[in-house]
Each structure stands twice: as structure tokens, then as C-alpha cells.
Design a protein that fits this description.
The structure holds 2 protein chains of 2 kinds. Chain A contains 22 helices and 2 strands. Helix content of chain A is 75%, strand content 3%. Chain A is globular. Chain A has a domain at 272-465. In chain A, strands 1-2 form a two-stranded antiparallel ribbon. Chain A has helices at 4-19, 27-48, 78-96, 104-123, 127-136, 138-148, 153-186, 193-197, 203-220, 229-236, 239-264, 266-271, 273-293, 297-316, 321-352, 363-366, 368-382, 388-401, 405-430, 447-465, 468-488, 492-507, and strands at 57-65, 70-76. By secondary structure, chain B is mainly α. Chain B has one domain (10-492). Chain B is built from 21 helices and 2 strands. The longest helix of chain B has 32 residues, at 155-186. The chains are: A mainly alpha, B mainly alpha. The interface between A and B is large, with 36 and 37 residues.
Chain lengths: 508, 495
């Protein structure tokens, strides 16, 4: 068990290298098997994880560049555990539902490399290691969008790469400066994130460093006004690209906020709550309105992704257990729901080669199973109680209510506006008379599609009814993070805000 | 009149052995050719490698921080390091002559003799702090290099050689003026004495010091292709063979950096703020301008030329920062750059075709690499890795170099510079990606690709690519020992 995280990170990479040798016709079976094994390993990790221990577990440590404080340092806590499981799960489901035929081998090998980087980002406890996986995840995605995408694919792929690359380089400067500050404070240089968590920084340094990290993370999330690359990337990417992009890659940004920004710069985070919440609310409302205006199904879901990411940001910056734990839960639920929605759009695109809303109508009659699953996912996306979407959204907003009720009200528009554009999408696609003759003989979901979608639906309902197995470990780790933040807060406002939260914690 | 007596021991000829071996190697090759004509190039290549190996062996035998030959030659830590880099780089580049296609210049033994003379020249240049000795080394190396370019025997190569020669002559003139002024100011041609005298006198008269430094910056700027002295670079790279262009992008600049380090070190650490300011400006303009121009290039080789200007600017920043960490970063960066650029240029070299089938001017337009992944997936992947490394995508080698130099900049308080470096890396990603986009996302233009592409490949070229790819991909494993070795030597010479 000691090396389970290394195994989890490098198993897909090794499998990808060996995949070059596997015969072209059998590559899909190979990839699904690999992804299934990887998923089982991640489940074993979950089983073996001790939910009562809020700290990092299964840590591995190996000096990489000792002179410069860079180490191979892995570990997992409640915050990252479920993102790891989500990554392996979505990869497996994505592989099962894959319908690409052109150059499939290259795609699957890139996806396996991508899986390595996704797991790596979430388990890395060394900033440089984190940065390596973070940047490396761009390369397979660049290839997937750029080769298998639709007409504007190259433009979309390059835009995606350059935007994120630019942001992360600024973040890298921030990381290097933070390591230097650590050196000034302790006399040894270190890039280890737990070491950085213990570092108390003066307020003005915190603000500048927060902004450097913010740029890297915010472009990845993507926060308004850095979101313009996302609709292009989603619009042009093949189904599997969109699924992984929405389900996992965007979560890297919000995960970064929780892992770096909050515990390392608590005062700056608290001082900047209002402007960030402002951006998040713009994200929620503006992109929801844009989503309503879209003619293309995939774009509706792409913009809805941005809108939901806004709620995640609000929850993260609520600075209390409900908000942060809720936002992490929302990352997972949004990963599953948006992944499923992109997959569903992919299904209809495979049949009709169009995603335009005007082409559809009355599909519920010809494709009842498809309509049912789509309906469940729409409900989950809107945040209906007893679905996975409700828990996270509710907790995030409840957490932020303590910061500002009025802003929470605006953030809560996410649910109302979400219902508006999602139900419109559902109505025009599935209800009404079947007007387009081409749709009359569409086949319903086949076994392969059903397998992947039913698995997702099961998770949506299971975690919607009983979120505790996931929420408990998250809560534990978030509580200990908040205590840490309170201990190291330097400004008065930050201390008061965090204190108010922790006192309540102890009373419980 | 007293006869001049010089004991052999006091000459400490050990310090000269490495260069003497290289020169002897060149002479041997010429003599072999006199005795028996029309020998195959593989013999010359192997002889060159052997002599370079002996050269390296002699170098390792030298005690660090010894002077010799009337105290003109100085083998300190950075001289040792840079000589080692120069010799190893030469050993890696010379097998590129073993192409499967016949190229005129490699059948001439003079090519290899000149190559070894050039290596000796560069070694003299770095292993001295005497302005005259540096000048002699510089000119020996440069004159050999001009000839090597011209030997490629094409109109473009002659143009390149003449352009390089004219520009080089101008630079040599600048250097001579600068050195003369420094001599006039201090009465010495030894850099350390110049530093002593100038510091004692508080850098008065300031205008003469300024002029001398300006001449020196211009002279070294030409050699290091700093903007605005870079204009020759892309044309010369275009005209030279890819193998030689790759060599030019690495080795002469290594020598130039060492001279710049020796010359500017005391100026940077003095109170003369403007020296630092000029260098700061030069560094930023070099990085940014070269990056922006690289964006619009249509030929991969010209793109790589501008990219290497930009990389040189990046590394020049380390000299401007002037801390030990920055100087370590300089050597680290350049070793990593050596392997990546070696790989990239070798990839161009093996895809070289004798007739221009893709473009009426360029040998390596982007279109040539369209859809390469479908024809040769392995080659395309390796080339993509070299490009990603140049762009600074982790964990490939140059990322570590960038990390180290940016870290050094931050530690020395140059936060804005570090951000400019980061932005430039982001800009440069675009033109490296452009090649990746052509290779991976477009369809091949030529159906008969298999036979057209790697005509020029041979076992030795593939080996070189393998070595550089391994070094680039597994860089994470080498970084730590490499940093320790470099730090040891840089510290030993007090930089």
C-alpha cells in the first residue's frame, strides 16, 4: 500500500507506452482494461483511506533536486481523494462510450497519458511536481482537440494551450518566489506544499502571490473574464475531449484554489473575497444568459459549465466548512453531471452529425431511454434535491450565505437560470411534435452507451441520496485546513472571520 | 644583453594540452590526407572524435585554478566547465557528417581539420582572462567557422559565410577598440588587473569606460547574436547546413558567454548602474524581439535561429543578474539547451533533401512536416518533445533551466525580469506549437512520404537523436547531479 499513489500515477503512463505495441484493432479493449484496472486501484485507495485522519495519507517522499528543494512528494487527503477517483472513473466511462474510429490508437494513448497527468495533479504535494503534471496535461489535450475536433479545431486547440500556458507561467513565477520566501524564513529552500502551508507571510506579499496564483488557476477554471477559450475548446473538441475537459481538467483550477490559495494566503484570500465573489457572480449570471441564447446543444452545456464553476468559486471563498466542502463536492458532482451531459450530446451527434437545437424536437417518442437519462442529468445539473447536483450547490451557497446574503442570492440565480436554460434545452429537444423527418428512425441507446450512462446515473442518484461517504472525509480535511488558516492568519478581519467559523466547529 | 630564460615548469604546459591536442588532431588529419588520398569521411569523423576524447581527457587532468603559459592561460572552474561543454558538444555534432547522402564538404579532410582548429580556438577563448588571448582564440575559431560554412558549396552558403565574415570582422574591430581603450585606461590586458585598476580609480574617466564597455557589449553582442546585433543569425543559419547551424547555435555562444561573464562580472558588481541597465535592456529586447519575429517565420530552421537568439537572451539575463545561482543556471541552461537543440537540428538534418521539393527557397518549410505523425509516428513524437522542451513545458529538460534562471532572478530581486521571462516563454510556445500542429494535426501533403522524408538518416544520426532525446526526456534524473557539479566548479572560480 505504501506505493499505491505512484502506482496510480504511473500505471496509465506505462500502459500508454506499451500501448504503442498493441495491435491497432485491439487497442480499445486494451485501453478499457487499463482504465478499469486503474479505476479499481483508485477504489482500493478509497477503501484504504482512513476518513478520520484529516492529514495527508499514503505519502511518498523521494528527493529529486535536493539542492533546490524539489522532491517527489505524493500524498492524498479528503480534498484530493475523490478528485482522483473522479478522474479514473470518468476516464473509464469515457473509454467505454468512445465512438471515434479515425486514428483511435493515437487517441487512446494520449488519453492514457492524460490520465497520468490528471491523477498526478491531484496527488502531487510538491509544487514543482504539481506544475509538471499541470502543464503536461495540456499536451495530450492539445492533440485531442487539434486532431479529432471539428472545423476550427486547430484554432481552438492553440487558444486553449496558449491561454493556460500563459497563466501557469505566471503561477510558476509565484511558486518560485514563494520558495524563495520560504528560504528567507527558514534557511532551506522547499517546494513542498505542506511546508508552504506552515509559512506565515506578510499581507502585501500574500496579495501579490495570491494574484500570481490566481491568474494561473482562474484561466484554468475558467473564471470570467478569462473564460473565452472554453466555449471554443468545447465547441470544437470531440466528445471524449469535452467530457474530460469539463469533468476533470477544469477542476484542477478550483482544486488549486483550495490546495494553494486558501491555506497559503489566508489573509489575501479573505481580503479579496468580495472582488472574487463579484467575478464569480458575473460568471454565474452572464454565462447562464449566454447559455440560454445558444443554438447548439453542446454550447449550452459548455456555458452551463462555466456558470456552475462560478458557484464552486463562491463556495470555495466562503471560508467555512460548509462552503469549501460543498464546493469540493460540487466539483465532483459537476464532473459527473457535465461529463454525462457531454456524453449524451455526443450520442445524438453520432446519430445525426448535428448538435443544433432547431434540428430536434419530440425525441422522447423515438428515444425513450435516451430521454429518461437525459432528463435525470438535466435535473441533476439544475440541482434538484435527491440528485448529486443539489448537495454541492446547496452547501456552497449556504456557506457563502454567512459572508453575504445578498451575494448569495445573486449566486443562487445559478439554480433558477440553470433551470431556465436546461429546461428549454430539454423541452425543444425532447418534447413537442416530432417535426424533423430525419429523427423519426433514430435508434435508442445501445448497450455500450447504456453501460456508461447507467453507471453515471447510478452515481448521480446514490450520492444524491446519501452524500456522506464522500462528504465525511472532505469535511475532516477541510476542517483541519480551516484551523490551519486561522492559526496563521495575520490580519484582524481574517482572524475574526475564521475564528467565528472554527468556534462553531468545536461547539458541534 | 641578458638572455631570456624561461623554465619549462613555469610555463605549466599542462594547461595548454587540451588545445594542443585539438590542433595536433587537425594537423594529423591533414598529414593523413597527404599520405593517402580519398579516404572515407567516416575515418575522419572517428579520428576527430578520438582527438576530442583525448582533449577531454587532458582537460580533466588539469588542476582547477591553475595558470600557465606566462599566466596567459587560466583554467578556473568556468573555463573547465565551458571547455568540457565545448568539447562534448563538438563530439556530438561531428558524427552528423556521417549522413547517408553525400555532401560535398564532408569528403574534404580540411573540413575536419578546420573543425578541430575551431574547437581549439574556442577553448583558448574561454581559458584565458587576457584580452589579447581571448581575441586570438576568437579569431581562430571564427575564421575556421566562416570557412566551414562556405564549404557547404551552395549560393546560400557563400552568402552566409560572407555575411558572417563581414559582421564578424566588424565585431572583431569593436573588440579591438574596446580592448585598446581598456588597456589605455588601466595599462593591462588582464581582466582582473583592469578590474583592480578601474575600481581603485572609481571608474574615472567615466566616459572612456563607457565607450570601452559599449564597444565590448557590441563585440560580444555580435557573437552572442544579441538584438540589435543579431541580423546575421537567421541568414547564416539558413545558409549553413543544419548540422553546422545547430553547432553555431550552441558552441560559439558558450564561449561568448564565458567571456561576457569574465568581462562584465566586475562591472556588474561595481556601482556602475548603467552597465546593468544596458544589459537589462539588451536582455529584454533580445528575448522579446526574437520571439516576436520567430512567430512569422515560414521555415523551421529560421524559426529555430530566432528561437536560439531568444534563448541566448534568456541566458544573458543570468550574466546580468550575476549571482552564483544565476551563473550556475547559465551553465545548466546551456547544457540542457545543447542537447535539445542538437536533437532539433539533427531532426532537420536527417530530413534534408538535396533538391528543394517543398519550397523554392527554404529547405525546411513548415509544410514539409505536415502530418508527419501519420508517416513516422516515432520521429514526429521525438521532434514534438524537442519543441516542447524548447518551449519550457515540464518535465522536459529546458523547463529545469528556465526554472533555475527564473528562480535566480527572483532571488536576486528581479521580479519584473522573471515575469518578462515567463511571458516570453508563453509567446515562444506559439511558434514551437506551430510545428507540432503541422506534424500532428494536418494531413501529409506528399503521398510518397516514406521515401522522401528521412533520406539522410543513418545509424550515427539516429544514435545522436536517441542520445539527445533520452537526455531531454529524462532530464529530471540528471538535473540534481548536474547542478551539484556545476555549482562546485562555478564556486571554485569565485563567480
Amino acid at each position: 500500500m505504501d506505493y499505491i499513489l505512484s502506482l496510480l500515477v504511473f500505471f496509465p503512463a506505462v500502459a500508454a507506452v506499451l500501448g504503442f505495441i498493441v495491435d491497432r484493432d485491439n487497442i480499445k479493449v486494451y485501453a478499457i482494461t487499463v482504465a478499469a484496472i486503474e479505476f479499481v486501484i483508485s477504489l482500493i485507495l478509497w477503501m484504504a483511506y482512513d476518513p478520520t485522519n484529516p492529514g495527508f495519507q499514503f505519502t511518498e517522499y523521494l528527493p529529486l533536486v535536493p539542492a533546490y528543494g524539489i522532491n517527489y512528494y505524493l500524498g492524498v487527503d479528503g480534498i484530493s481523494l475523490f478528485l482522483v477517483v473522479l478522474s479514473t472513473f470518468i476516464t473509464l466511462i469515457g473509454f467505454i462510450s468512445l465512438t471515434v474510429e479515425d486514428n483511435l490508437k493515437n487517441m487512446l494513448i494520449s488519453l492514457l497519458f492524460l490520465e497520468m497527468t490528471m491523477v498526478g495533479v491531484f496527488v502531487a504535494l510538491d509544487a514543482v511536481l504539481f506544475y509538471i503534471f499541470w502543464e503536461l496535461s495540456l499536451v495530450p489535450m492539445l492533440y485531442i482537440i487539434g486532431y479529432w475536433g471539428s472545423e476550427l479545431r486547430i484554432y481552438a486547440a492553440i487558444k486553449f494551450f496558449l491561454y493556460t500556458f500563459f497563466g501557469s507561467l505566471i503561477m510558476l513565477v509565484g511558486m518560485l518566489f514563494l520558495a524563495y520566501l520560504y528560504y528567507m524564513a527558514t534557511g532551506t529552500i522547499s517546494f513542498s506544499i505542506p511546508d508552504w502551508h506552515r509559512l506565515v507571510l506578510p499581507f502585501d506579499y500574500q496579495v501579490w502571490l495570491f494574484l500570481a496564483f490566481f491568474l494561473g488557476m482562474a484561466i484554468k477554471v475558467p473564471m470570467f473574464p478569462f473564460h473565452t477559450w472554453l466555449p471554443y475548446a468545447h465547441g470544437q473538441a470531440p466528445t471524449i475531449g469535452s467530457v474530460i475537459l469539463a469533468a476533470v481538467l477544469l477542476k484542477m483550477g478550483t482544486y488549486g484554489f483550495v490546495r494553494f490559495s486558501l491555506p497559503i494566503f489566508p489573509d489575501a484570500s479573505i481580503a479579496l473575497i468580495t472582488p472574487i465573489a463579484f467575478l464569480a457572480i458575473i460568471m454565474v449570471i452572464y454565462t447562464a444568459m449566454v447559455a440560454y441564447a445558444q443554438e447548439d446543444m453542446k454550447q449550452v452545456i459548455a456555458y452551463s459549465s462555466i456558470s456552475h464553476m462560478g458557484v464552486i468559486i463562491l463556495g470555495t471563498f466562503a471560508m467555512n466548512v460548509e462552503g469549501i466542502a460543498g464546493s469540493i463536492f460540487l466539483m465532483i458532482s459537476h464532473g459527473i453531471v457535465s461529463g454525462a451531459l457531454f456524453m449524451l450530446v455526443g450520442n445524438i451527434y453520432d446519430r445525426r452529425h448535428t448538435k443544433l437545437l432547431s434540428e430536434f424536437g419530440g425525441l422522447a417518442k423515438v428515444m425513450p431511454k435516451y430521454a429518461t437519462i437525459f432528463g435525470i442529468m438535466v435535473m441533476a445539473s439544475v440541482g434538484l434535491p435527491l440528485t448529486i447536483g443539489f448537495v454541492g450547490e446547496f452547501l456552497s451557497l449556504m456557506g457563502f450565505y454567512k459572508i453575504s446574503p445578498s451575494m448569495t442570492f445573486l449566486g443562487g440565480m445559478s439554480i433558477i437560470l440553470g433551470a431556465v436554460y436546461m429546461l428549454r434545452l430539454y423541452k425543444t429537444t425532447f418534447f413537442g411534435p416530432l417535426t424533423n423527418e430525419k429523427n423519426r428512425n433514430l435508434p435508442d441507446l445501445d448497450g455500450k452507451e447504456l453501460t456508461s450512462l447507467i453507471a453515471l446515473t447510478a452515481v448521480v442518484i446514490w450520492l444524491g441520496i446519501n452524500p456522506n461517504p464522500v462528504l465525511k472525509p472532505i469535511n475532516n480535511s477541510v476542517e483541519s485546513m480551516l484551523e490551519l488558516m486561522e492559526k496563521k492568519a495575520v490580519t484582524k478581519e481574517a482572524r475574526e472571520l475564521l475564528h467565528a467559523n472554527t468556534v462553531k466547529l468545536e461547539a458541534k | 644583453m641578458e638572455p631570456i630564460r624561461v623554465s619549462l615548469e613555469s610555463l605549466n604546459l599542462v594547461t595548454l594540452y587540451p588545445m594542443l591536442i585539438a590542433v595536433a588532431g587537425g594537423l594529423t588529419i591533414l598529414i593523413v590526407d597527404l599520405i593517402k588520398e580519398n579516404l572515407h569521411k567516416s575515418l575522419y569523423v572517428m579520428l576527430s572524435i578520438l582527438f576530442l576524447l583525448l582533449d577531454l581527457g587532458a582537460l580533466i587532468g588539469i588542476q582547477i585554478n591553475t595558470r600557465g603559459f606566462f599566466d596567459v592561460v587560466l583554467v578556473d572552474g568556468i573555463a573547465f566547465l565551458s571547455q568540457a561543454i565545448i568539447v562534448v558538444a563538438s563530439m556530438l555534432f561531428i558524427p552528423l557528417a556521417l549522413t547517408s547522402k553525400r555532401f560535398h564538404e564532408f569528403s574534404l579532410p580540411e573540413f575536419f581539420a578546420l573543425f578541430l582548429f575551431m574547437v581549439a580556438g574556442f577553448q583558448f577563448m574561454v581559458a584565458s582572462d587576457n584580452l589579447i588571448m581571448i581575441f586570438v582564440g576568437l579569431e581562430t575559431a571564427s575564421l575556421s567557422l566562416y570557412t566551414l560554412i562556405a564549404l557547404h558549396n551552395r549560393m546560400k552558403s557563400f552568402e552566409a559565410a560572407i555575411k558572417y565574415f563581414t559582421m564578424g570582422a566588424l565585431a572583431a574591430g569593436f573588440y579591438a577598440f574596446g580592448a585598446a581603450l581598456l588597456y589605455g585606461l588601466s595599462g593591462s590586458v588582464e581582466i582582473y588587473k583592469i578590474a583592480e585598476v578601474l575600481t581603485d580609480r572609481g571608474f574615472e574617466p567615466i566616459w572612456v569606460v563607457l565607450t570601452a564597455v559599449a564597444f565590448m557589449i557590441a563585440a560580444l553582442g555580435f557573437k552572442l547574436s544579441m538584438v540589435p546585433f543579431h541580423t546575421w543569425t537567421p541568414d547564416v543559419y539558413e545558409g549553413a547546413s543544419a548540422a553546422l547551424a545547430g553547432y553555431m547555435s550552441v558552441v560559439p555562444k558558450m564561449a561568448g558567454f564565458v567571456v561576457a561573464m569574465r568581462l562584465f562580472e566586475f562591472l556588474i558588481h561595481s556601482d556602475l548602474v548603467w552597465v546593468r541597465d544596458i544589459l537589462y535592456l539588451g536582455v529584454v529586447v533580445t528575448m522579446t524581439f526574437a520571439n516576436i519575429v520567430a512567430l512569422v517565420q515560414e521555415d523551421v530552421k529560421r524559426m529555430l535561429a530566432y528561437s536560439s537568439i531568444s534563448h541566448a537572451g534568456f541566458v544573458m539575463a543570468a550574466i546580468m543578474i550575476g549571482t552564483t545561482q544565476a551563473n550556475v543556471g547559465l551553465f545548466l541552461y546551456w547544457i540542457l539547451f545543447l542537447f535539445t537543440n542538437l536533437g532539433a537540428f539533427t531532426m532537420l538534418w536527417i530530413s534534408r533533401h538535396k533538391s528543394k521539393i517543398w519550397h523554392d527557397r527554404f529547405d525546411h518549410p513548415y509544410e514539409k512536416f505536415s502530418g508527419l505523425v501519420q508517416i513516422m509516428p516515432m520521429a514526429a513524437t521525438i521532434m514534438a518533445i524537442f519543441m516542447l522542451s524548447l518551449a519550457g513545458v515540464p518535465p522536459f529538460s529546458l523547463f529545469w533551466g528556465k526554472l533555475y534562471i527564473m528562480g535566480a532572478a527572483l532571488n536576486a530581486g528581479y521580479i519584473v525580469l522573471a515575469i518578462i521571462m515567463a511571458l516570453n516563454s508563453a509567446i515562444s510556445a506559439y511558434y514551437y506549437l506551430k510545428l507540432i500542429v503541422y506534424m500532428f494535426m494536418r494531413d501529409p501533403v506528399n503521398v510518397d512520404g516514406q521515401t522522401i522524408y528521412f533520406k539522410n538518416a543513418s545509424l550515427s544520426l539516429r544514435t545522436i537523436i536517441g542520445i539527445s532525446a533520452a537526455f531531454t526526456i529524462l532530464a529530471t534524473a540528471w538535473i540534481s547531479p548536474l547542478i551539484e557539479i556545476i555549482t562546485h566548479y562555478v564556486r571554485a572560480s569565485g563567480f
